[in-house]
Amino acid sequence: MQSSTKEAMDKKNNQMLKRVITGCVGAVILIIVFFVSNTLVLNFAMALVSILSLYEMFVITKYIKHIELMVLSFVFAAAVPFLASTTTKVLMFLIFLLVFALFSMLVLNQNRYKLEQIGTIFLLSIIIPFFFSNIVFVRRLENGEVYFWLIFLGAWLNDIFALFSGMLFGKHKLAPTISPKKTIEGAIGGLIGTVLGFVVFTFVAKLIWNVDFIIWKMIILAVACVIAGVIGDLSASVIKRQFQAKDFGTLMPGHGGVMDRFDSILFVAPLVYCVLNFTSLIK
Amino acid sequence: MQSSTKEAMDKKNNQMLKRVITGCVGAVILIIVFFVSNTLVLNFAMALVSILSLYEMFVITKYIKHIELMVLSFVFAAAVPFLASTTTKVLMFLIFLLVFALFSMLVLNQNRYKLEQIGTIFLLSIIIPFFFSNIVFVRRLENGEVYFWLIFLGAWLNDIFALFSGMLFGKHKLAPTISPKKTIEGAIGGLIGTVLGFVVFTFVAKLIWNVDFIIWKMIILAVACVIAGVIGDLSASVIKRQFQAKDFGTLMPGHGGVMDRFDSILFVAPLVYCVLNFTSLIK
After folding, report:
1. What helix, strand, coil percent values describe chain B, rounded to 5?
2. pLDDT per residue over B143-178, tens digit each?
């Protein structure tokens, strides 16, 4: 009994170690990408993340049997991150092409595809590349090299603080039927950590880039990011649950698949872009 | 036996009469809308057509039980036709809001909604209002009052010529498992009729508006409209078939629902808008 408890503990520690190591490797990759983010490398990186995420979705939903739809979805996903400076017209044309192709396939293979599969593939093919591409759109704004960090801090500070404060203080379940490990204490820790992180970043941004963020706007943005991140995270959990999968993949040891790590980014990226479009965060 | 054949014939004639009368009423409404199409009346008309079409879709798919999703979809559909002159930023913001609301509902009611329903509702909520709104976008272009007609001629000339040439010469089934009444002869008649209609319209446009269309571009456009119209029509048929419905509704006697009449418009409208965005049809 004791040895099996020890084994379980070892396994848990091992898992956490993996998680931390993968996290550190990821952080290093992110910093490297940041340093070349004023080039097309960022667009290619987002195309890659989108395609990997879509691939994981096709596996989970078992739509992978519709390989022709997956290829179509990949082609579309590869194009989207390069549309940062494009017009509504090009955007509409691309979406029209995607829809027209999907429906042509539905008509030609009415027994093979169901409308609901076409709908789900359309949803995933639109939101995954478009929402991730908001990272590129944000980076291409004036002061984009500063704003860039808001997305990752907004999504991942919450993930990290929620994980550790949940482990330390977690008692009350947050959403037991969706994500049994999440606790209310974790959620509160994530929120406080993210807000503090944004305050610290306000000073860092002043120091490094001489950019003067308006602190109350930063605090509101931090709260909004936490909400968007949690909804993204829980959405991913619901999808996994509905398709009886534990993780989206195994590409990131200790984390799961790409979508397991990027699920909170999915809604935070467009949120940050929209906020920056409609208000200035800088004095 | 003879009397029942006579009854069937009477019923068929009666049905055709209804169809023609409804068609004429529709044409009169269209002409009235055209004369005020430089005002917001056109935007409101398209919002109405979109909402009615979405309502029919919610009934057919039995998603009508998710009344909260339907209302969300209606609100979005009502906004889209007014975005003719908007920027990508506003567009992205609206789509983000729609997606965020849909996923929040999925998270809050994971047992009530399935990802595939969310996907289908997203697909319908995007393409129905966006694609119909291309009528508004086309009308707001320079020479929009001329281009406006290309959409309706491109979709409905084919419907009319295909129907009558199918009735006169129809022998070989076009797509028996999707739409058993369609014949190859009807399709050819529709194609020829639409091309001829576009050629006639070229002269009409010169006479009425002094607009000089390039005739070979008009012929290619006519062929493209027929293809887009047929795919739209067949897509609607597949959807009806997959959900075991004969028509989308009863609002238009002899035609069926709004979607039964507008299904061919669905892909023709964005096609015409995209073509006009990327090439000039005028000398």
Report:
1. 80, 5, 20
2. 999 999 999 999 999 999 998 898 888 888 888 888
